[in-house]
Amino acid sequence: MKGPTMQGNILTPDGWIRGRIVIEDGTTTIAAIEGDAADPASNNDDYILPGFIDLHVHGGAGRDMMEGGDAPHVIARLHARHGTTSLLATTMTAPLDDIDRALAAIGTACEQRGKDEARILGVHLEGPYINSGKLGAQPPFAREATMAEVERFNAQAPMRLITVAPEIDGHLSLVRQLADAGIRVQIGHTNGNYDDGVRALEHGAAGFTHLFNAMPGLHHRDPGMVGAALAHAQYAEIIPDLLHVHPGAIRTALRCIPHLYCVTDSTAAAGMPDGQYMLGRQVVHKCMGGVRLADGTLAGSTLTMDQALRNLVSIGLDLADAARRVSTNAADYLGETRRGRIAPGCFADLVVLDRDLNLKTVYIEGEQCDLADA
């Protein structure tokens, strides 16, 4: 029995098709795509894109992942209303008890997706294995990593991605162990130099956490960690809120890093009015479109993935390329072959946008999401 169908300009791995997507009744996957190749500029139909995938989510709707309890579910609902169909719940540098509390809640949320919630694919452990000299908005609880501790964390919730400062003693060997265990390792919150970055990539690191932010920048006689990323990386995440990174720097990264993908680094302030919120143990303030500590340091963002897509288009990317940067590339990075693309057999994770790129409909694993309060 045929279930819901969506009609419009469909972005498939082979290009645009004007037609419809068929989902079999009661299933989570795409059954068929019917239609013909077409240029979306030749008609006024809606756009149908792969659901957005965000690998760096701290919070939203006034809630923070480090709270534990039902926070992951509330956050996943907020981001689903903005087109995110799957995400990684992202932790902060914190005492072990805080991390354990967060992971217990995230692990439960990974096992059972609630109604109108984005699928939580696992954890992005952004701390505590970072450099205390590049905390950014992270609290001062950085420490050296051990594989035994990672394994303990992984028993509570699936570790899909871990941010590591590779210059810390012992971390290079850990990078290799993590990569061998199938966990993606990103370089971030680091004071390492160009050579540290290259060695980390050689040891199995796969990407960079919020490229340009919380790492030494590029200088022509000291290329820094940014130089290592631009010269060697296949993947890196970037925050396209046009506040963390200048559009010119985003375009530079796009030319250098083939599979650059976008994240929100969103905090509890996402989807909320200006005011005071928590980011782990830190008090942060939302004002003038950004989130900052009391000293003015940027502390995550209020970005949602639908706005990320619009921002990419506003700086000159065509829609198909922008869509890959907020979906397909992140799926490929994690090895999620049934997400981030519209093809038969893939999860029916879909967003429907009008001609002005405003969100109209979201499907998560074949279920239409309620967009109320979006």
UniProtKB/TrEMBL annotation:
Protein's GO biological process: N-acetylglucosamine catabolic process
Co-factor note (free text): Binds 1 divalent metal cation per subunit.
Residues that, per the record, bind substrate: A137, N213, A214, R221, H244, L298, A299, G300
Enzyme Commission no: 3.5.1.25
Listed InterPro entries: Amidohydro-rel (IPR006680), GlcNAc_6-P_deAcase (IPR003764), Metal-dep_hydrolase_composite (IPR011059), Metal_Hydrolase (IPR032466)
GO MF annotations in UniProt: metal ion binding; N-acetylglucosamine-6-phosphate deacetylase activity
Keyword Metal-binding appears in the UniProt entry: yes
Catalytic center residues: D265
Chain ranges of the Amidohydrolase-related domain: 47-368
Class of the enzyme per the UniProt entry, highest EC level: hydrolase
Positions bound to Zn(2+): E126, H189, H210
Domain of life: Bacteria
UniProt keyword terms in alphabetical order: Carbohydrate metabolism, Hydrolase, Metal-binding
Cofactor(s), names only, from the UniProt record: a divalent metal cation
Record family assignment: Belongs to the metallo-dependent hydrolases superfamily. NagA family.
Protein's name in the database: N-acetylglucosamine-6-phosphate deacetylase
